[in-house]
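Proteins fold. Shown next:

***
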Amino acid sequence: MQRDVSQAEFAKLIGVSKAAITQQISSGKRLNKSISRSNGKVSIDIVKGILEWFGNADQTKYRKGQQNHSDLTKLSEGIMDPKDSNAMKIHYSALNEKLEYESEAKILMPKEKIRNEVFQSFRGLRDNLLNTPNEISGDLRRSIDRFLDDEFGDNTSTRLSKDVETIITEARRSMAGEIKKLLSSLSDAIEEVSRA
């Protein structure tokens, strides 16, 4: 492999402009030990030149652009850009303030409070529905007694009252069973929604 290269090739190799290399050679600050002149051309020994060039503490001012810093920044790819970080911080801060405002304005309610209110409402509905057969049975008994009295007279009504009571009890049990099934499926649906 060729150890001596031109100023342009050396500049490309270390990632600086050719003007920076020329300036350093002409000022005598660097690359004095690694250059050789022949036929008016300056050539630089790669190994000595690199060691001499990077021996300088402040080499960033000679770099051209950001293209050669990409190797160094690959190490920090997982780190968020400060602008993005600040934007994200502002966004979540605004969301937090909105949630606090809605909570104070009673627009938002805690999950437990909602769960308790739904439970109390459901319990009241359940109690009312389960009491419906008892309320209906009294109305049903009066309607049947009135019908029997009107159609068959007072004597038949008294004889059939025991049978009517049995029919009403069975109807009440049947309605209560159906209402319990309905409430059970409603309870399951509410429980599923509350888990979401």
